[in-house]
Write a structure and sequence with these properties.
Blueprint (H helix, E strand, L loop, with lengths): L8 H25 L3 H23 L5 H45 L5 H10 L1
Helix pairs in contact: 1-2, 1-3, 2-3, 3-4
Length: 125
């Protein structure tokens, strides 16, 4: 029930290599953002299963090479976007904490003379 002829060995290796690139991206992101060891393994395993399903679909002739590459690129971009969002949120939290600390410092070290400025910094942070 194939809709295409069986792919040659070179094409299979190209698709497998691209799939392993996606898995390596997942490994990198898991080490960077997930501290729980079990969750890291589950995340990488899920991405690897997705990659293996695409490779198997290609080997069985259910999907062509371009479709598999497109889906792998889409998933890789999705993973990178999620990593960027996590980074942005982390930077936002750090800058907010720094603003609160700066506002408190202004209030404390100015002996309450500049508390209006310090309070607005703390409220914004």
């Amino acid at each position: 029930m194939r809709n295409q002829t069986a792919p040659d060995t070179w094409d299979i290796r190209e698709v497998e290599k691209a799939g392993k690139g996606l898995t390596m991206q997942a490994v990198t992101l898991s080490h960077r953002y997930i501290s729980n060891g079990g969750l890291k393994m589950q995340f990488v395993r899920d991405v690897d299963r997705f990659e293996q399903c695409l490779v198997n679909d290609f080997k069985n002739g259910k999907k062509n090479k371009e479709t598999v590459f497109k889906e792998l690129r889409k998933e890789r971009q999705n993973l990178m976007d999620q990593g960027a969002i996590i980074t942005q949120k982390g930077i936002g939290v750090i800058s907010g904490v720094m603003q609160v600390a700066a506002g408190a410092g202004i209030c404390y070290y100015s002996a309450a003379y500049l508390c209006s400025i310090g309070a607005s910094l703390m409220a914004h942070g």
